[in-house]
Target: Xenobiotic-transporting ATPase
Amino acid sequence: MKKSAFRKEKKPNTLSQAMPGLRRIFKEFWPQIRQQKLLLSVSCIGLIVEVVAQLLRPWPLKFIFDYVILHDTGALALEFPMLANSNPMMLLFIFSLAIVGVSGLRAAAAYVSLVTMSLAASRIVAEIRAGLYAHLQRLSLSFYYTVKSGDLITRITSDIDRLRNVTVTGIFPLIVNVLTLVGMVGLMFWLNWELALIGLAVFPLFLLSSVKITKRIHKVSRKQRKQEGAMAATAAEAIGAIKVVQALSLEGMLQGMFATPNRESLADSARTQQLSASLQRTIEILVAIATALVMWRGVRLVLGGSVTPGDLLVFVNYLKSAFKPTRQLAKHVANISKATASGERIIDLLDVVPAIRDTRGAIEAPLFNGDVKFNRVSFAYDSDKPILKNLSFDVKAGQKVALVGPSGGGKSTLVSLLLRLYDPLEGQILIDGRDLRQYKLESLRRQISIVLQDSVLFGVSVRDNIAYGALGATDREIKAAARLANAHDFILALPQGYDTKLSERGSTLSGGQRQRIAIARAAVRKAPIVILDEPTVGLDNKSEQTVTEALDRLTANCTTFLITHDLRTSKNADQICYIENGRVLELGNHSGLMALGKRYAALYQLQSAVDTKCWETCSCIPTELPPQQQRTKN
Ligand SMILES: Nc1ncnc2c1ncn2[C@@H]1O[C@H](COP(=O)(O)OP(=O)(O)OP(=O)(O)O)[C@@H](O)[C@H]1O
Model:
């Protein structure tokens, strides 16, 4: 089993469990957060004004009750004699205005703080995402083989989105709620400690039921998310391989695989709704009990003259609104815990160090002559399974080397090492006398062109597809490369010529056309070293001829590595390297190896013996020797 590139995830459930993660997130992303300090400061000021306005909300009502309605009763222990002596109608007018004013102030402050916070969060997250994407591009192939692409995509999309959403809908309201709650409890005790204690008596009950139900909601949501992940993975796999799925008539089976998590996710979603609804009702009843208790004692205190009716009103109002933020606390804490997990997943990804990177003191590669030397190179993808074993050979600048031999022998691996997609475990590869690792990676790769069996084209215009070979190539260079690749004429015949946008992976073009665009892309690079990995496999005779012509032009004067199973194409190479089981078994030119009379010669004869007609039409050439023959040639 492949070892994962990431540490094992542990999801935090409580705020205290999430604390170390939150600290890590703030520390890691502090540079991005700091850039938004102006917006964040405005948001904080707005937040404080919002909390104060929220606390002030019931006070105009209290004054209307105590100083307007009960003005003439004289039964009040009035705290503000100045108000008691004022004109009640005037006071009514002022406090009515205050009702609107306080609400307006609260609304405006909430708006400003939310908008600025959202903007700051979006900017911070966009910076993080850009950094993460750039980092991803630098990671080595070996890393990509140990992770699932779906997992990476989730990290760069939904994990990052969650971080933003939770900042705006979790952390921010949590701060508002906590400050409001503290303010309300303080004011309640200030107004009357006895009533405050009575009112808060049901609080433990409330906390208990709230935490219990929220935990259950959390558990069900987590299960639901898992189901959604399974659905996404099934869908991604099926869409990515739709051709094979349809060809093998796997639609029904895949629909079945999709249906189970879909059904379970639906059931979990209904369960979450049900639990939320029951939490809501429980809280309503607890609020009613608290209100009844406060009224029962409060009215007696009012009648006894130690509390004003207005105070009681403020009390009941606070009681009602104090429960609301507390109820949301659990939800926000759950969201923050989830976001912490997401944030840590992003940091884990950022912490992955590219296995292949510029070494200390690496130099910008000068324009290569193209001398390549493999010097006792050994390599393995997994330490227990060596792929290349002590392999050595030299290629002179401008020479063409054909890498031939049975499938799985290590030919593609060898050229991956030349591109420094991996580094050898032992030995070295030299270009123009210097170890590859002494060159800056980008300057090395810029001087190597590749054409693969199934060259990947992108869903952009033909022009851009070619220009990707050398970013910044001029229109003239692009067209020259297309002409060299025998592609110019067919490109002009496309609906919008060079501006025709290709479908994803260029699937609307024929195999030969795709290859010719790929050759143009390699040509525009004007690289002194070219790698061709079975570039004509799967093409019909006519396309093969056009592509071969284009390849000959592409590789003229370049050091060329041609991987092929078809020994007709390797015949003219300056050197033929027969690789089997990670070792170079035979090395020489065609006539030399034929004279040697070993494996290459046997395979060549075997291929030649195949019915020429079949060779021409179905490419069913034997690519390796039968087992008995392999033994006799040892
Ligand atoms: N990313 C990888 N991780 C682990 N093993 C790999 C990886 N890529 C290739 N291999 C293994 O390395 C060995 C050599 O593969 P490679 O593709 O280099 O051979 P090849 O000679 O080019 O084969 P073919 O002619 O079929 O293309 C094979 O056993 C293959 O299974």
